[in-house]
Amino acid sequence: MRHLLSTADLSHAQALSILDTAEEMAAVSTREVKKLPTLRGRTVVNLFFEDSTRTRISFEAAAKRLSADVMNFSAKGSSVSKGESLKDTVQTLEAIGADAIVMRHWASGAAAQLAASNWTDCAVINAGDGTHEHPTQALLDALTLRRGWAAARSEDPRGMDLTGMRVLIVGDILHSRVARSNIWLLRTLGADVGLVAPATLLPVGVEKWPVSVYYSLDEALGSGPDSGPDAIMMLRVQAERMGGAYFPTAAEYTRRWGLTDERLRRLESHRGAAGQKPMILHPGPMNRGVEISAAAADSPMNQVLDQVSHGVSVRMAVLHLLLSSSERNPV
Amino acid sequence: MTRSPETSHVMSASDMDRALTRIAHEIVESHRGVEGLVLLGIPRRGTVLARRLGERLARIDPSFDAELSTGSLDITLYRDDLRSHGARTPEPTKIPATGIDGATVVLVDDVLYSGRTVRAALDALQALGRPAVVRLAVLVDRGHRELPIRSDHVGKNLPTSREERVSVQLQEVDGVARDEEAVVIQRGLSSASPAGER
Amino acid sequence: MTAPPTSATPTSSYLIQGAQPYGEEPQDLLILDARIAAVGDQASAEAQRLATEEGLEVTRIDAAGLIILPGMVDLHTHLREPGREDAETVETGSRAAAKGGFTAVHAMANSSPVADTAGVVEQVHRLGRASGWTEVYPVGAVTVGLAGEKLAELGAMAESSAKVRMFSDDGMCVHNPVLMRRALEYVKTVDGFIAQHAQEPLLTEGAQMNEGDVSAVLGLSGWPAVAEESIIARDVLLAQHVGSRLHICHVSTAGSVEIIRWAKQRGIDVTAEVTPHHLLLTDELVRGYDPVYKVNPPLRTSADVEALRAGLADGTIDVIGTDHAPHPTQAKECEWSSAAMGMTGLETALSVVMETMISTGLMSWRRFAEVTSITPARIYRHAEQGRPLQPGEPANLILVDPRATQTVDPQAHASKGRNSPFSGMTLPGSVRATFLHGHPVVLEGELNTPLTDRQVPA
User: Is 60 exceeded by the pLDDT of residue A328?
Assistant: First the structure.
């Protein structure tokens, strides 16, 4: 595996390998010496064309725990002229001697274009490209789900996939790179996936995806205490979308698709096959009061903080698997 | 088990059992007891051997709690030869809940060859704590050291050439029947050391 | 558009031997100055006579195995001059046209400044005449600045030396229904026609690629087929209502083909054009995010490709228009959403049409001549293009080797544009010679000399 661009590229074996490696990386973070020498002497560049302090810091922590050197390059699209920026920027980094580029970009497909170009020999890790994919987010979500699934059965998560787990993804699927990456990965790992959104926020062609589609969150949550999901992933609703007539008002959106206090209560009474309560996930940052109520945001079912720590472990695993065995082409 | 003209068995299952029993006695003797002893096997075959050693120690001296004081130490992330062997998923590292500070840690592995695995294990140990003493027990020492590393306890010394490949076949890892376990030498292969050997 | 004056003393003559007109039975053809002088057995006899009686040197061209066709006429080309000479000039675009076998191209009005006045269209026309590689006919804008608000001075452009008859805001859609109605009415007064770029702007804001299964996965904003079809449906009804001629540029969807078929059945005077790339390529190619595949209207699905081929074969679609759209390298070497839309097409058109329509048995060479030359000339009402290969007709014709294959190499193209989506593909057919008013601008598959010493109108 040379690059990580999309979860659709990961086989079942590759996905498990990343998750199992992430478990070991998580163990490292609990030790006194939280460092591994694995990537000593390698240079990882965080190339961020969009603001994201959280993701950048997560990748930075991951690289440093593997003893890699880290460089941060922030190039917001508006100040650098579009078009010249990507190619010239990347070639400059290449000349400095980067081994891996972690890129977040506002344009869908930017990571794939970079990987396919001859501008660099680096490993490319997609940290989010437009509305296309965010593979490490999906991987940390999968790690979170797997730990919960395993804990409910008092089993070791290593080697497990998500067969039989029912996961709902709720919100702006059309514009969500988190949703896309999650859907492909969850399916590869054997989970059942349901999407919940108004029709305006579902892509044309979604009926061909390997998912169930609901316009009604209440319907998706099911009627009985054992008919609901094992996990529900709430996507952020962006204020910009309200201008495009995707839904009439934020209030109507919250009433119909928000994780309100009332729906939270329904979730609290759900029990999965192993008697466990459902997990609530959110890629962050949360819009309290819009897609998720304050009570749901603070609920013990909410895995948001664990998702953050899992993010570092997963990113360590990805960096290790992509870089440890790569050879830089000799100049 | 088929024997090709290029393969020869150097230890049978009962040879291996006897060697492990002797090693267990050696460990108790040189440590003067079992207190503070921790066995850490290097995955994957080392952990099997460590467990068997632990059972024997417990029989020799019941105050040795095999469950508590036997564990595993994965060294994948500390290897210096990752680039030629490829990135692998690490196996679990499990150390006693009481930690290893001040303990006598006996590293256990199946074959000692270049010594790089043991060097990586020493690095990995450093991150876990500060043992008082670190010792090494191996089933087979096949020579050709590339680092100044020696074993404290050896099942069998086996002079080999670089063209030969030594494998230890265990039920839990290789799927052979318990009484068909063996240490095997294969000849006529390239001198590049495969990932399983050190 | 007049051919060079026939001097009392003929000055050049070519005997093309053994070529197959429209791919049919081989026969000779004699060119004398700007006209076809003789065909068949009479051709060599006349050549002999010219040589002996008038002392004229007749150049013989061995065209065995080659097909002879009327010179191709492209109703839809972008020459970029004035304003974007970094992408293409009338000179380089004309060279590309000649190499591609086009003896006439119509230059769309979305230059900078926009061709919405007599001054700009006359400039483009003059540049074309001066280049001498192909005939350049400027297309006039429908609205001032292509802004879709006010009609441009269609009359002034029609009366200029460029004699514009075709008007289009291509690049932009004339989306206001009242303005489109007025344009369709007004253009009748200059005996011209409107060519519509069908794209409802509100349905395609920020659109990057066809809206469908591929865009759903790629996270690129979609350009739905209905945005093209709804405009075509509206405009054919408007054209019927006001009794005007309508031409639809670059039809790209199966639904559009059906609407045009329906309109023609009702007797509506509508003609339609398809690009070579829409006959071959689909939106699956966008999966790699290579901006060379970014174009407007976008690449669609294989079902659309099938419907377009069938429509071209059965006459629902009348002509091939290349929509040749060269761009400078940096406009295509960036993020998909920042990249310019457009593909080059003049030098690959014949091969792509051959690959998609002739090699598949959907079309004969006769029909090829109709869709690439005869019909576009008829739509524009050209006097000197798309004519039969008969004595007395203008010698605007091409020689094609149907057995040749070539691998497309944009670096070797005469166009400045390197943005060809066919790069690296091996395609059939090659243009061996292009005769513009009897002068070979392309010989042996390479540029020869331009047609000079022509009178440029004042």
Answer: no
Q: Which residues of B touch A160 (CB under 8 A)?
A: none
Q: Does A153 touch chain C (CB under 8 A)?
A: no
Bridge-based pairing state of the strands C67-70 and C397-407: antiparallel
3 state SS of A16: helix
* Residues 116-135 in A contacting C (C-alpha not used; CB under 8 Å): 116, 129-133
Query: Helices marked H in A199-246 — which ranges?
Result: 217-221
Partners of residue C196 on adjacent β-strands: C248
Q: CA angle, C128 as apex, C124 and C134 as ends, to 5°? A: 140
Domains in chain C and their CATH numbers? 71-380 (3.20.20.140)
For Cα atoms A151, A153, A156, give the angle at the middle one, nearest 5 degrees: 60
Beta-carbon separation of C289 and A112 below 8 A: yes
- pLDDT confidence of residue A90: 84
Domain residue spans in chain A? Answer: 7-133+310-323, 135-307
Global pTM? 0.90
**CA distance linking residue C94 with residue A149, whole number of Å:** 67
Residue C343, beta-bridge partner list: C324
Q: Do B83 and A325 touch (CB under 8 A)?
A: yes
Would the CATH topology of A7-133+310-323 be identical to that of A135-307? yes
C-alpha distance from residue A238 to each of A32, A170, A176, A284, C223 (Å): 41, 13, 10, 12, 22
pLDDT of B31-64, one tens digit each?
A: 999 999 999 999 999 999 999 999 999 999 999 9
pLDDT at A83: 47
Evaluate whether chains B and A are touching (3 or more beta carbon pairs less than 8 Å apart).
yes
- Strands (E) located in B51-99: 70-72
Predicted ipTM > 0.95: no
CATH class entry, domain A7-133+310-323: alpha beta
Mean pLDDT over A114-141 rounds to 94
Question: Which CATH architecture fits A135-307?
Answer: 3-Layer(aba) Sandwich (3.40)
For residue C379 the two structure tokens come to: 């739509």
Asked if the Cβ–Cβ distance from A326 to B83 is below 8 Å, we say yes
B139-175 burial code (b ≥16 CB/10 A, e <16)? bbbbeeeeeebebbbbbeebebeeebbbbbbbeeeee
Facing residue for B89 by CB, picked from A20, A28, A327:
A20
